[in-house]
Amino acid sequence: MGVDFLIGLFLATLITALFTSRLYRLIMWYSLNSLMLGILALLIGQELGDTAMLITGVATILIKAIGIPYLLKYLSQKFHFVRQIQPEVKVHYAIILIPAILVFTFYLAEPITHMIHGNANYVAVSISSLFLSLLLMMEHKNVAPKIIGFLSMENALFLLGITATDGMPMLVELGIFFDLLMAIVVINLLFHKEEVKS
Amino acid sequence: MIAYLLTIVLLLLIAPLLPSFIKALKMRLLFKKPASIWQGYRNFAKLMHKETIVSEEASAITRVAPFLVLSPLLVILFFLPPVVHGAYYVSFVDAFTITGLIALSTFFLMLLGLDSASAFGGMGSSREAFIAALVEPAMVLTIFSVSMMAGDLGVGQAGVNLAAHFPKEHMASFLFAAISFFILLIAENGRIPVDNPETHLELTMVHEAMILDITGIYLAIIETASSVKFVIFASLFASLFLPFGLDYSAPVAIGVFMLKLFAIAAAVALIEVNTAKLRLFKVPNLLGIAIVFAFLSLITFYVLGA
Amino acid sequence: MMPTLLVLPALIMFAVSFVKNDKAKFWLPASSFLILLPIVKLFLLPKPYALIGNYLVADRLDTYVLLVSSIVGIGVTLALLTLDKHVKVSQKAYRRFYRFFAIFWIGLTLSILSNHMGLYWIGLELATLSTVYMIKTNHTPAAHKEAWNYMIVGAIAISLVLFGIILMYASAKPILGEEAMRFDLLLAHADKIPSPFLFEMGFAIATLGMFVKMGFFPMNLWLANIERASFYPVAALFSGILESAVIIGFFRFSQIAEKVNYAHLFGFVFVYTLLTIFIVSFLIFRAKDFMRLFSLSGVEHMALIALFWVSGGTFAALLHFGAHAFLKPALFLSTGVLESNGKYRIAGALRGYHGKKGQLFWVLVSLFLLAIISLPPSPMFFSELYGFGAMIDTAKQSHHMLAMIGAVLLLLILLSVIFYRFVAVYQSMKYEGKTEEKKVYGSELAALMLFALCLIALLLPVSIDYLHTIGQG
After folding, report:
1. What is the domain partition of chain B in residue ranges?
2. Which residue is closest to A161 within chain C, CA to CA?
3. Residue A15: exposure state from Cβ atoms within 10 A (0-12, 13-18, ≥19)
4. Residues of chain C with C-beta less than 8 angstroms from the C-beta of A197
5. Complex ipTM
């Protein structure tokens, strides 16, 4: 029940992020999204008695829910990002598009739900959140929301990892975190060069 | 039967209290000297004594409409889910009837706005129509989805079923429906992100613009109607989405229910303090979110069963 | 020991990139040749040879791919020596380029050798992120924009790959447990996977990600624009090393998918590659500069390789892959000279060369140009013959013979469009336009010679035998 509730909140924060037109709000929704993911990992990890998943859950909360949003806010203040980010996809189209994506992915994942024991629905939710993050990346022209879209895509992958497979091997989890940090470094570098030039 | 009638009377009595409570709480949160929470009753009493003047341009509709605004809402009061276990309730009324009755009330309110032929009235009516058109699909979908989870299309029966058997296995879709319904509660009652009930600024008015021309007893009726509407939404939210506390003995159960209503009012007040009013053309964004969540709730329930 | 030797050249490069002495870079080509020693040793060792536990395993396929990509690495290191002669680049940016090249190389070596889906992905992601900076070395607004573009689209592609990997892992976890990440075990137990649908969906998503990364159907111009905006060695690295790592992932995944459901695999890849080639051939026809021309032709060849591979033409695919991996970086490296300081002129690009070096250069470039459109002595000619043969063979066993012949005919028509365009470009390069003085440097010539020698070596009976054994083993 708790897991169901959290997964609902996970999807809800992502969908709300799709309608947001302010950068800081978007960062806040991303942070909440990651927080839900971290708590979810902790819950499932506790259920399975999987220490590795507990560790990744804590790491998710620390890095994704607190660290990255804070860093993004810092970067946006340092490099003066555009904070008014109007989605390119108009709201009335989004109202039709988002349910269409959801229906499509839910039915796409339907055969899977018969195959996986336990948390079967979450595969569908994570696939749909993958597509929604793609939409988030597509509907914005500015760089900052695109980065957040990329990060929420990472969240969707993580959700799939913890629910569909009962946790990936520790090595892979660490690799993913390492790559995420590297991505942040590269993003920082890219912004840095931009500032030096102008 | 007694509990049933008692609840209705109590809801009617409490109706003017809730908006005043929200206002007082807001003022306190903004470090102002709060208005009395009995202000609603005082306004009502004052308006009852005031002379009633009707515009010369107005037709008979102005005289009839206020009653027609209030009466559908009063009818809905009888259809609400019970607040005490074992109390009498009407089980067969479904989402469409309730939405329809609310729409009927809104329709007469819009007519009232148009009737006096003032510029503000027309503008307010058109805005109200714009919002109502977006609210209704989401409202039907949401109540429908919750009814499906409860296993009965009747709203009253759904409330009873939910209290007896909380849908633990459908927590995700239940949550989506709750988010959607809360947005509707805000939008339909003209609370802040959609409409500001306190200003008389022409750019922002929706509800106030329609009733700008009327005074006296008619205004008292309209004000009562809008507070009854809030009570209806709040109690629907309380019995459908917070379905607990019915098993206690009747006085305690009613007390718990009242606490829930005040908690909802407090949540609305908190949102009002923390957000700015949306531009009118941004309102569809908010209601769009509500529609998406309502739909999401339905398909999550159907396809995933979660 | 072995793994250390394999990444040693990259590590040396990484270390040298911190040395402020401009002369230090001249040591790098020599040190990068060192990578050939462990690879030769790998060829002699019995396969599969475990490098690090079960994580990095050298079998016949990845040893070959590693050799090809390392030679490209050596060639690019050679050509990088004179990058500053052709384009404007500050010494600091130059050193940074080396640094990220080293990370890129390490990541892709990891990817190519990995026997573990997770490690494969980590290497690929590392390479993707380091490329972003390599693109950014060019200080123009276009390069900046394209670096972001690469960052975003590359991240999407790479996330899709990971998503697919997780699904495939989930599909096999009930029988293999944590070991379900291993390619060899997955291949061995492919027909016992309890939920084929899950596996196939994972495969489709991962393949989509890899295809997007190589510039297939929805993203055709994406790669071309990026390569246009960045310095030419980046394009050479893309076509030589990055695409080797991506295609080896595709090879491994499709080997497993073939056992799960061959018809689905074939249908998916067949439609996707045909669509890609169809669009790309017309884009090539409209290409106005070398970079886009070569980059789009790279997309076309990668599509052909994927198509040959799933049609069962393992040998054809590998030969085509090797030939393409040598030819394309050679062409990309020579564009530095051909475009002579950033002028995108095709007309007259092959004129104005003096001295022995110049003569040799233009002969080599013309040979490469003719080889890339598969004129007979080129290995591509043979690989395409074998590849189309394999496609027809596959169709013989099914009821789709006519459709297959139609598809092959369509492919031939599309390829002839490309052929025509390249011949026209060649003629324009040789016979039109003004003659401008162009200078060729020894290091570039050495790189081109290296690639030419490797191309010839690819046609030796020894190497053809080796490629045949990969297909059977």
Report:
1. 2-304
2. C166
3. buried
4. 139, 144
5. 0.87
